[in-house]
Amino acid sequence: MQNIINRHVFRGPDGHRSLTELAWREEWDLTEIRHTEPPFVEVWKVPGRDVEVHFIRDDMVGLEYVTFHGADFAPEAEKVRDACLLWRQSDALDEVGKLTNRDSRLRAIYAAALTATSTEDPKLISLFRSIAMNERDSGVRQAVIVSTGYLPWAGLIKVVSEMRDNDPEPHIRHNAQVMLDALHQ
Questions:
Q1: In sequence order, what are the beta bridge partners of 9?
Q2: Dmax of the chain from CA atoms?
Q3: What are the pLDDT digits (tens) for 36-45?
């Protein structure tokens, strides 16, 4: 199977149910369930095609998402977009700046990272740099470090390097170094 991956992030509590109902309708084969330790993963194989659909409940970021693996997953990705409520990156980026509730803001930060493409986005990097340098809540700043693990763009790695050198909290500086070490292995 070719290693092309695309990710859609569910918005709201019904992502798993919506995906499962779609999989049943489409007669996808549930070939694997991994739930002994996080993240929780279900792997659905599309019969007759070189495509897998992976449902992931990721407790690290508090979100559920689906990844598509294979040579031509466009039809399956379209079916998921039609059947499920999903984050769009533009909505996530807008909400990061507007939300005041910490948990909702963290979800929006993670959704912005998880919905990004493989091409570096200067708007996202600028937003994350602003959070890293100006946000008073260390947990929200920490979300920039965690997000970089999912989206290791050079621009975000530079932001994490700046956090390692300049963040006022010792644990944030330490975690930034841990992330940089992990990314450079």
A1: 65
A2: 55
A3: 888 999 999 9
